[in-house]
Amino acid sequence: MKRLLAAFLTALLALAPLAARADDTEAQIGRQVYDQLKSQGKIVSDSPYYSTLDPIAHRIAEIADPQYQYPFHFILVKDKQPNAFAVPGGNVYVTLPLMTFVKNREELAGVLCHETSHDIHHDVMHRINVDRNLSIGASLLGAILHVNQLGATAINLAANLQDLHFSRGVEQNADHLGAYTCSKAGYNPWGMVWLMERFQTIDRNSAPEFLSDHPSDRARIDALQQEFSDDPAIFSRWSSSISRAHPL
To answer: Is residue 178 within 8 Å of residue 229, measured between CB atoms?
Structure first.
C-alpha cells in the first residue's frame, strides 16, 4: 500500500482550501487522489481483470451504496504489491496483483466489502479529525503556508501516516460490516476468514505490504467466526469449507 499511499498523501497535501462540509471534503479528497493516480499512469481503464472484478463489485455496490453518500466505484491500478484501499468519496482501488493473489470469488468479495466499510464508517475522515484535534504543529504550519485548518491538518497527517494502518478495533468494525455486506450481496463471508488464515501462513518478512496495513491476526478471525455463530439468521446458510469456494 505504501507506494499507492504516497499518491494519497500527496493529494492530501493539496487539499487547501476545502469546503467546510464533510461530504464536500470527502468528494474533493476522492477527486484529488484519482487525479494524482491518473497523472502517475497508475489507473488501469482497460484490463481483462475487469470481467472478473465488475460483476462482484456491482453486487457489492448495490448493498453498500445506500449506506454512503456517494456511489462506490471499483478501479484497477498498477502496483507491484497485492492491495486494495478505499478513498473518501467512494473509490475503491484494487491493484492488479491482488487479482491473482486472491484464490476465489469469496476472497475478492471479502476484500471489497471490507474496504467499502472503511468509507461507510468514514475511517479516513475520522483519522483526519483526530489528527486535527491532537496536532500541535498543524495550525502553525497552516498559517505559514496560508492554508486553512483542514489543509494544515492534511499536511500534518501526511507526516504521520507514511505507514497508514487502522487499529485492530477499526479493522474489526470493517470486518463486521463487510461480512454483512458480503452476505447480503450473495457472497460467502467466510471468504474473509479464508484469506486471513492464508495470511497467517505467509512469512511476514516476505509478505505483501498490505498485510501490515490490514493486520490479519487471530483476534480478527475469531471475531468473525463469533459473529457468524451469533447471527445464524444471516450466516448459517454459508459453508465454512473452502472446498465450496468458487474459483476466479
So the answer is: no
